[in-house]
Automatic annotation (TrEMBL):
Keyword Metal-binding among UniProt keywords: yes
GO terms, biological process: L-methylmalonyl-CoA metabolic process
Transmembrane region(s): none
UniProt name for this protein: Catechol 2,3-dioxygenase-like lactoylglutathione lyase family enzyme
Family annotation (CDD domains): BphC5-RrK37_N_like
Keywords: Dioxygenase, Lyase, Metal-binding, Oxidoreductase
Top-rank lineage group of the source organism: Bacteria
SUPFAM superfamilies: Glyoxalase/Bleomycin resistance protein/Dihydroxybiphenyl dioxygenase
InterPro entries: Glyas_Bleomycin-R_OHBP_Dase (IPR029068), Glyas_Fos-R_dOase_dom (IPR004360), MMCE/EMCE_epimerase (IPR051785), VOC_core (IPR037523)
Native source organism of the sequence: Modestobacter versicolor
A GO MF term: methylmalonyl-CoA epimerase activity
Amino acid sequence: MSDRLITHLRHVDIAVPDYAKQREFYTQLWGLTPVAEDSGLVYLAAEGSPEQYVVRLRKDADKRLDLIAYGAASREDVDTMAAQLGTAGVQLVSEPDVLQTLGGGYGFRFFDCDGRTVEISTEVENRQHRRIEDREAIPVRLSHVVVNSPDTARTQAFYEQHLGFATSDKLTHPYVGDLMTFMRCNPQHHSFAVAKAPHASLHHVSFEMRGLDEYMRGTGRLLRAGTKMIWGPGRHLAGDNTFSYFIDPHGNTMEYTTELEQLDEDSWHPSLYDVTDLEVQDQWGTANPFDELVGTASFNDPDPGVYVAPPV
């Protein structure tokens, strides 16, 4: 897409009441590395990723999604996006400026159409990362983030019109209509998706593993530790990626995945996948059926952070 200014997903920032418990889960079980920490704030990196951090945890009285951060190629692109959003009437949280978070850079924040905070940045210092070794079952990088919206068509239109995302595929139900829209900002099948839900909230965050063996070993580690897995292990049809969905200590859904499809954007045409087809849900047939309990868990709690910018 010639006018696309967003390049990739950088990080997802979450606030929780029990900071110590959440920090322990992501560092001791999930496999992320703390790289900087202040009072009630920790930056967590994926060892295989050049991003300074892929998750930021913050202590707060409420559980909330603080923000989703995306990258841009240059200051000019950041300034262009901020100007275009402002002209379109999108509410900016901050004007383009030097960032005060880990790795620095230059960026700005705004509220999307559901009120969640989004950050666009460039010139963030790369972190020294490494190759993930054979059988090393820790995340290589952040893969994608999925949000819940009471109006998926509106959210899809916002990300297409204002941020240059393209729709890759959709999940549909013959009686309910569109359930999930997969969207991309580069050839990866999706770095963002929007799911139909009663309220705005975080649906899930996904982390890419090195390969199938590492994906299964990571899944097994979480299961042995008694972490609740709500769906998996299996392989979706849309995106062709593996999935194991777990619940973190505060009820957020987190996913291990691998082998997410890379698209030829010039020739790709979106498909509509009927979720009543079991092959759509899981090509392997190894995962538990997607039922009401799985769906309810993915709805998460209504986010009190809607239209409330995080303090950091």
